[in-house]
Amino acid sequence: MTAPQLPGNGSAPALSPAERAAERYTDGEWHRLHPATPVLRGGIVFIALIGFVLSNLRERLISFFVGAPQYGGDPLDAIYDHGWEGWALLGVAVVLLACLGAFYLSWRMHSFRITGDAVEVRSGILFRTQRKARLDRIQGINVVRPLLARLVGAAKLDISVAGHDANVQLAYLGSSLADGLRGDVLRLASGVRAVEAAEAAAEAAEQAGTAGVHDPSAPGGEALRPSRTAAVGDLVGRRVNEFLAPELDPNAAPPESVVKIPPLRLFGSLLLSGFTIFVLVVVAFLVWGAASGALWLLIVVLPGLLGSASFYINRFTKSLRYSIAGTPDGVRVGFGLLSTSNETLPPGRIHAVEVLQPLLWRPFGWWQIRIDTAGHSREKGAAGQPNTTMLPVGDAADVSRVLSLVLPGFATDEHRALVEAGMVSSGHDDFTGSPRRAAWIRPISWQRTGFRLVGDAIVLRRGFVWRSLAIVPLARLQSLELQQGPLDAALRLAEARFHTVSGPVRPRLAAIDARTAVTLFEEVSAHAVAAATVDRSHRWRHDPIRPEEDH
User: Fold this and answer.
1) Angle between helices 296-319 and 274-291 (to 10 degrees)
2) Which among 43, 380, 437, 486 has the fewest CB atoms less than 10 Å away?
3) CA 170: distance to chain centroid?
4) What are the tens digits of pLDDT across the range 43-74?
């Protein structure tokens, strides 16, 4: 496949106001997070403490508002009877000051900096920690806005890096600052920031020549300061717009490249899932137990069944407003109703793609798309699934559209026809399939088992009950393994395993002809080396060095 040609990949697009404002945070100096960060990070604990205090003072509150009779035992009565009002107020003041001091120290000691090659975060009061993410190893950037953070205009910036537990999280930043920093970090990683800096310097020099021109519309050169009412109204307006705005900017990509999931389809996919089958089995077991007189099952199982309702509601609300689009910096996926998430995956970070169809989805023509990447966001993806799920549920048209985003080389009509055949075909097509003797170990799926080498990618098809089509870009391939057990040797068969980074996709193909497997090994090895040599997708917005300029 060729390097991704996403919108705006030919020339650097104009920077948004948020990206312009965020540029001063990428100067290599240490900066602090949003002032509300300590409260947002410990917000649940703070709310729990308030609830505990109110529950213990409920009698006093009822008496204050409705004049109910007092029965004694209230802590406030004991304080008043012993004349401890002053000490109580002093204790409350000390606790509040201690909490404020701890919050302030936590905020002061938590800082970050962004240099030309890394993002660093340091935190801790007694025990200091420092994490560093290299820009050339960034696999994705996720902007997460929990409900409480959205109320104060804050967001988390989760930077996924290749490696185990190597992510760096900036929690919390201003909402617009998080969006701007995402764009700035991606430009640093893409290799065009130096060019943009030179252009900005030239523009600043040009503007300096026209500075000092007097604006007659502003006497004295002073702008009128907005009123306090107008400032409050502007703040409220920004918060409302953040709640109502879509997760993906419609101007970031062509409208036809955006995929959205209808709520009815989403709800149906959740019902037709393995968890629903488990719930039905538990209900049947509960009915059988109640009919046989084992009422204790009702006490044991009923709370879990009630909890399953919250499971469905949770996954449904988290997948609302789902959308996916191609941007100049990669594929962006957004979702969420109350708490939102918006992740960008730069080009060259996807190591394998799988299109699969559970059995219960087949009558409706629904499919799911999963990917393998070297790093994963800490936050859950749409429908509560891992962030490796690019499309929770979609039809064949949605699959074609998403594949054209994550694998731009498969955006041609020829490749679309190949993918459609691989999704639904039962064999006897352009794929190299398994021999008839493979039916001894794959009696149902041997006809669907097959592969095809297309350009610099390998397409693997397998599964009859649960259909699967895996695509592995050879530039991302780590290694290739051929395996043959005693039964395979007797039938002159072999299994090919295509090793990529750890993830939900398992690119492997069993029960193929042994001689064909050896030929496949040699071809894939040669194509993988050639594809990795010419691949420049990891510097997606940087003009590669021409051969005649490479000395």
Assistant:
1) 160
2) 486
3) 15
4) 556 666 666 666 656 555 555 555 555 555 55
Taking residue 385's Cβ as centre, other Cβ atoms within 10 Å add up to: 16
Instruction: Tell me if 388 sits within 8 A of 382, measured CB to CB.
Output: no
Q: What order of strands is seen across the sheet that includes strand 330-335?
A: 168-174, 154-161, 138-145, 340-345, 330-335, 323-327, 259-260
Classify 51 as helix, strand or coil. Answer: helix
492: which 2 tokens? Answer: 């002159």
The answer to whether 363 touches 230, Cβ cutoff 8 Å, is no
Residue 170 · residue 157 · CB < 8 Å: yes
- 70 Cβ partners below 8 Å, 6+ apart? 59, 63, 77
pLDDT at 474 (0 to 100) = 92
Q: Name residue 169's beta-bridge partners.
A: 158
Contact 479, 442 (CB under 8 A): no
- What is the spatial distance between Cα 163 and Cα 349, in angstroms, rounded to a whole number? 13
Give CA separation, 52 vs 1, 56, 165, 364, in Å: 59, 6, 35, 49
Cβ burial of 411 (10 Å; 0-12, 13-18, 19+) is middle
Q: Are 471 and 410 in contact (CB under 8 A)?
A: yes
Q: What is the pLDDT of residue 365?
A: 92
- The conformation of residue 94, written as its DSSP 8-state character, comes to H
Furthest CA-CA distance within the chain: 94
CA-based angle 509:510:513, to the nearest 5? 105
* The predicted structure's pLDDT at residue 220: 44
Under DSSP, is residue 17 helix (H, G, I), strand (E, B) or coil? Answer: helix
Q: DSSP letter for 19, please.
A: H
Q: What HEC string does 124-180 produce?
A: CCCCCEEEEEEHHHEEEEEEEECHHHHHCCEEEEEEEECCCCCCEEEEEEEHHHHHH
At residue 399, the pLDDT reads 92
What are the strands of the beta sheet with 432-433, ordered from one edge? Answer: 389-394, 367-373, 350-357, 467-473, 457-462, 450-454, 432-433
DSSP secondary-structure letter at 475?
G
Q: Is the torsion defined by CA of 13, 14, 18, 24 positive or negative?
A: positive
Predicted pLDDT at 544: 45
Mark the ranges of the chain whose per-residue pLDDT is less than 70: 1-16, 18, 42-83, 85, 164-165, 191-202, 208-228, 230-257, 295, 376-386, 538-551
